[in-house]
């Protein structure tokens, strides 16, 4: 297979800003209003989204800051510098396992949703396989191409979401949002935990910063990109609650139902959800693509002599196999939580560990 | 060379997989459902047996924009059974096309079904749960058999279900309400809030009458009665929605008809004792004089006040009639006081919400005071048509 070669395999700091929302916005965007409104009262969930969002922004900033102190070095090389090579290899392997799980989950989830709403006769295994094949195709090309695809898709995803909310205005009832601040402390905390699950994949920053030509600006860009996600989530959450009120917690995919419910005035378009489906599949595609790509990148850094294509072709069947493990929607939910929590746990532990080590020994050596 | 031949044969083979037509249903094989009617079956079994009528669109009857179609544009099929979805599969044995609910316009529930305790929510379940159902589908209640409504053939609309959905959307009369969408009902059912649904009945072979509003008790999801005419108008004045329409009122014993251009209502809680809650409802109305049988000159301030007073009294009378029927007879809160208490007096609401319009029924014990403010916006094109008394 011949692929187009870009001039260089470097990216701009701005592309990191776009990669963050492309990565974070995934399946979670379709389901989080349900989980969140389950544990908070009325519209109070936005507080939780912002709380968890600020934490996510802090993490993104911290990771980018650390990684940009070692410009153009791969995760493996600066981690080996800080915590010794064997530990760094273990961490990289953990990241690849997490990446495989995340890719498999996204593949499975998208095929389940398409099964529910689009193709009720096509077995989900077939949908998943097709989706995975496209992801494989995207990953096997140039890495800069992945980022350019993000840059291409992101405005489309963002604009369509704005349009969706615009059309939903006619269905909103302000009474559904009121009264405010009636949730107790534990509700907010639980909501924060719940909404944190939707900020997936901060871990990619550990790896991708090494591609940035001039990483000085990346911490700010990464935090800003996360901020975009927070704003999008808050707006979507408020829209869902304003439209559905108490029914938000009973609807499986609130955002999909929102697209199904709205009609463009004039009766010209009735079933808009097919359009929005394309867009959400794009959003989920970018997430899956990057999760896969980071996994390949991580493994490639451990085995630098192995061909990238070999790794991809070895991983794909594994991912496909993992994606078929959950047998029903309950197990899929557990899978989702496992993937999200492990992502947070891994990124969180690693960044804290690395920062401490950086302060202890790396600080003097690298910063002049 | 061999490689090239392999490619030439191999690549086109992939074309077969490209189409991916597992779920494909040709347009010609699709049957579009436009309306569903739910009735009680004549013969009842162990459980409640329903009769379900589905209205399919017949595209040939519709014609195109340039060419009128011939014959009927719809086809009604009925079956009986205990579960809605099961009846649907029974109907599939009669239908030659695959039924699709994607363009379902309206669901009609007969009042016989709606008045049975606990049945309504069960029927709603399939319309909310099934994957292809849209939450925007309209819901109406029918006096008499629901399937009769699907047989009414108006002249300008080819499909009865479409006619019904347009009818519920048109806003000219004060005694109607916004179309009720299934999504709204889901929300009300979940929070056990009482609600209203448009109530229709067959008027003649080619028209349907928007009779009024069916009133449902949230606690049991059961229809407790209907509001028609003045009571329905009074309800709208109090809720503060859909007040536009005409009101005839007496101004110094002469009839004057007003067209209400805008209106709003605000609630205030004046007594917080939960056994004796008192609500102060202020209704603000802006009206235009459209017809008047007397000769008062509305350009004079004292006369304008007479017009205002006449309309205020009439609206107050209608609102009080609605209160009497809703609060004293039906004892269910469809005035949205529950929303008001929840948003503005949350602590009190938490305390009484379980017994709001069920159990203790604090709603029925409450007092509602009506206060109407009318502004006459315009006196009409020509404000004096006949002259009485001295000529100038």
From TrEMBL, chain A:
<keyword id="KW-0813">Transport</keyword>
<dbReference type="InterPro" id="IPR004761">
    <property type="entry name" value="Spore_GerAB"/>
</dbReference>
<dbReference type="GO" id="GO:0016020">
    <property type="term" value="C:membrane"/>
</dbReference>
<feature type="transmembrane region" description="Helical">
    <location>
        <begin position="192"/>
        <end position="211"/>
    </location>
</feature>
<feature type="transmembrane region" description="Helical">
    <location>
        <begin position="45"/>
        <end position="63"/>
    </location>
</feature>
<feature type="transmembrane region" description="Helical">
    <location>
        <begin position="152"/>
        <end position="172"/>
    </location>
</feature>
<feature type="transmembrane region" description="Helical">
    <location>
        <begin position="341"/>
        <end position="358"/>
    </location>
</feature>
<feature type="transmembrane region" description="Helical">
    <location>
        <begin position="223"/>
        <end position="245"/>
    </location>
</feature>
<feature type="transmembrane region" description="Helical">
    <location>
        <begin position="16"/>
        <end position="33"/>
    </location>
</feature>
<keyword id="KW-0309">Germination</keyword>
<comment type="similarity">
    <text>Belongs to the amino acid-polyamine-organocation (APC) superfamily. Spore germination protein (SGP) (TC 2.A.3.9) family.</text>
</comment>
<feature type="transmembrane region" description="Helical">
    <location>
        <begin position="75"/>
        <end position="102"/>
    </location>
</feature>
<keyword id="KW-1133">Transmembrane helix</keyword>
<dbReference type="GO" id="GO:0009847">
    <property type="term" value="P:spore germination"/>
</dbReference>
<keyword id="KW-0472">Membrane</keyword>
<dbReference type="Pfam" id="PF03845">
    <property type="entry name" value="Spore_permease"/>
</dbReference>
<feature type="transmembrane region" description="Helical">
    <location>
        <begin position="311"/>
        <end position="329"/>
    </location>
</feature>
<keyword id="KW-0812">Transmembrane</keyword>
<feature type="transmembrane region" description="Helical">
    <location>
        <begin position="122"/>
        <end position="140"/>
    </location>
</feature>
<feature type="transmembrane region" description="Helical">
    <location>
        <begin position="275"/>
        <end position="299"/>
    </location>
</feature>
<protein>
    <submittedName>
        <fullName>Spore gernimation protein</fullName>
    </submittedName>
</protein>
UniProtKB/TrEMBL annotation, chain B:
<protein>
    <submittedName>
        <fullName>Ger(X)C family spore germination protein</fullName>
    </submittedName>
</protein>
<keyword id="KW-0564">Palmitate</keyword>
<dbReference type="InterPro" id="IPR008844">
    <property type="entry name" value="Spore_GerAC-like"/>
</dbReference>
<dbReference type="InterPro" id="IPR057336">
    <property type="entry name" value="GerAC_N"/>
</dbReference>
<dbReference type="Pfam" id="PF05504">
    <property type="entry name" value="Spore_GerAC"/>
</dbReference>
<feature type="domain" description="Spore germination protein N-terminal">
    <location>
        <begin position="23"/>
        <end position="200"/>
    </location>
</feature>
<dbReference type="InterPro" id="IPR046953">
    <property type="entry name" value="Spore_GerAC-like_C"/>
</dbReference>
<dbReference type="GO" id="GO:0009847">
    <property type="term" value="P:spore germination"/>
</dbReference>
<dbReference type="InterPro" id="IPR038501">
    <property type="entry name" value="Spore_GerAC_C_sf"/>
</dbReference>
<comment type="similarity">
    <text>Belongs to the GerABKC lipoprotein family.</text>
</comment>
<keyword id="KW-0732">Signal</keyword>
<keyword id="KW-0449">Lipoprotein</keyword>
<dbReference type="Pfam" id="PF25198">
    <property type="entry name" value="Spore_GerAC_N"/>
</dbReference>
<keyword id="KW-0309">Germination</keyword>
<feature type="domain" description="Spore germination GerAC-like C-terminal">
    <location>
        <begin position="211"/>
        <end position="380"/>
    </location>
</feature>
<keyword id="KW-0472">Membrane</keyword>
<dbReference type="GO" id="GO:0016020">
    <property type="term" value="C:membrane"/>
</dbReference>
